[in-house]
Amino acid sequence: MLKMHLKKIVLPVLLFFLPLAAMAQPGKGKEKIEAMRVAFITKRLDLTVTEAQAFWPLYNQYQQKKEDLRTSMGVLRKKAEKNYEGLSDKEIDALIEEELAIKQKELDAQKEFNKKIKSVLPVKKVGMLYKAEEDFKMELIKQLQNKPSN
Amino acid sequence: MLRIHILLLLLSITNFALSAKDSSFVKTEVKSPKHYISNCVYSNYYSNQERHLSISPKLDKQLGSYKYSEINTGFYLPFFTRDYVRKDSVTISNLHLLFVGNFLTAKPVFSALSEQHHLYKVSLGLRMIHNNGKKNIWFYNGTPVTARDQYSSPSTKYASILVFNRTVSQKFSYRLGLTKTFIFGNRVRLPIIGFRVGPLDGIYMSMMLPRNISLNFPMGKKFTGSFYIKPLGGLYDFSNRDSIYSANDDNIQFGRYEFLNGLRLDYNPNKNFSMFLSGGVTKYNAISFASVDFQTNKRGLIAPFYIQKNLSPSLFINWGVTLRFGKTKKVYNNMNMYDVFELNNTFDPGDNNDGPSNGNIPKKGDMKDIKKIQYKDVQDLIQLEDLY
Could you state, in order of their start, the residue ranges of all structural domains in chain B? Predict the structure, then answer.
């Protein structure tokens, strides 16, 4: 009976779903990098249970804000690159203003995060966090140095 | 004068249109994800082997042998999520409301019956999860359920679960609660007592009585294995057209359950898709028939007029797929949210004890993967000034 089920139902459905599983996921690389960064920071900060419970929700929220702002920046830059010669002075000026506004929002988000995080982590660990973030970025850049740009 | 007015009006309209064009030109605001829990649809198939009955000589002859299979499709859709910042102005608590439901079709095959009964179970309910951001999570699921065969008229039962979870640490949480359930082939009200030892993104043991006991272990980056014991069953309105019950009732109640002792292998290639294959042996198999105007005992249990609790064990196969949709908020290392996900997956929408897998709990990052990264993966993460 099990053999019959295997032939008639299980295999066709598995065959139907396998391409879905194999399908390339947009943003999958980014997710992997995020998971790596989290692992990197976890190792560096060595948080206590109480610290971790307060720290990670705040850090995730901050990272989400940062990601949204960077995506906005990406959209903006693509708009400019697409047809720069065809843009009016007014439009170029608006783009520059918007880029500055996004950068300001990112700085505001970091300030807000910094203020909150200081109340759940000792300042020494906050400093270690920023250092760990920079070090992780440098690790990424090092890895990319010898790779073709495409 | 009028011409000047019209001209001014036209000019102001044109100016407004132009400024609107400008503001939309630089509009780059990205929609941030609303929910932590993604929309989820899953479908599971279960089947066991043919066995002989020994309920009563009359009924054994009338029913013949018994085997059972089912396909259960369920979903949960978050429709409200709200973060609240607590008094300390840093702790984030959150409330999640979800629509949940399932559609189950089942085939209990009694070999001697000329026309087989097909069972249908439909549920649609609401789920509420509150995470206080510290260590406590409250989980409530209320689901009206209709469970019947194709001949009987529908009646509604109500299944519910209330659970309190305390996430003591990354490696330990415990749960207490109450449930009204039909998974033991009867209408039972039971306490929920459980705990988890080990991190949810690593090796962990979970005992969630009366729902499941499992030992879970990651196998590489995309696979997870688990040994488990869990009951699977239900209580259905069943037509008395075969005169199983000698009284003149049109409908009776058909109850069944078995304990699955199995090994399960989950494949989680990404957070949007997962599938599992499981097999093993069913133990403590039981089927029962009760009158619709059932007698209840002191604990409110339905007293069946026919019951067989010692059906011989059977091999079973169980497999399923889970699809998750929608962008969700980040939850890395947020142990409370991992427990929210685990609660949400363990207590399935349709009171069938056959829910989706924990594929939405983020996997631990591995720095060895850094060698595989490409430019396109980091272009939004590293800005030009980072290179100086």
Answer: 33-387
Look up the ipTM and state it: 0.81
| Distance in angstroms (rounded) separating the CA atoms of residues B269 and B271 | 7
Q: How many CB pairs under 8 A join A and B?
A: 185
* CB-closest option in B90, B329, B365 to A54: B90
**Cis peptide before B210, with omega less than 30 degrees from 0?**
yes
Low-confidence ranges of chain A (pLDDT < 70): 1-28, 146-150
Residue pair B122/B146 in contact (Cβ under 8 Å)? The answer is yes
Q: What is the pTM of this model?
A: 0.86
- Give pLDDT tens digits for A65-91: 998 998 888 888 887 888 788 888 888
Q: Judge contact between B45 and B95, C-beta under 8 A.
A: no
Chain A residues whose CB is inside 8 A of the B328 CB are none
Q: How many residues does chain B have?
A: 388
Show the low-confidence residues of chain B (pLDDT under 50).
16-21
Residue B25 sits at φ, ψ, to 5 deg, of -65, -40
Query: What secondary structure does DSSP assign to A57-109, as a single string?
Result: HHHHHHHHHHHHHHHHHHHHHHHHHHTTTTS-HHHHHHHHHHHHHHHHHHHHH
CA distance B383 to chain A (A): 9
Q: Out of B270, B365, B382, name the one closest to residue A141 (CB).
A: B382
CB atoms within 10 A of CB B151: 16
* pLDDT one-digit tens code per residue, A17-29: 555 555 545 556 7
Nearest chain B Cα distance for residue A123, angstroms: 16
C-alpha B66/C-alpha B235 separation (Å) is: 16
**From the list A10, A40, A57, which residue is nearest B92 (CB)?**
A57
Contact list in A for residue B47 (CB cut-off 8 A) is 1-2, 5
Contact B245, B231 (CB under 8 A): no
> What pLDDT was estimated at residue B16?
47
> How far, in Å, CA of B173 to CA of A78, rounded?
47
pLDDT, tens only, B304-328: 888 888 889 999 999 999 999 989 9
Residues 6+ apart with CB under 8 A from B241: B151
Q: What is the pLDDT of residue B18?
A: 46
Largest CA distance in chain A: 74
Residue B28's closest CA among A70, A110, A88? A70
pLDDT at B292: 67
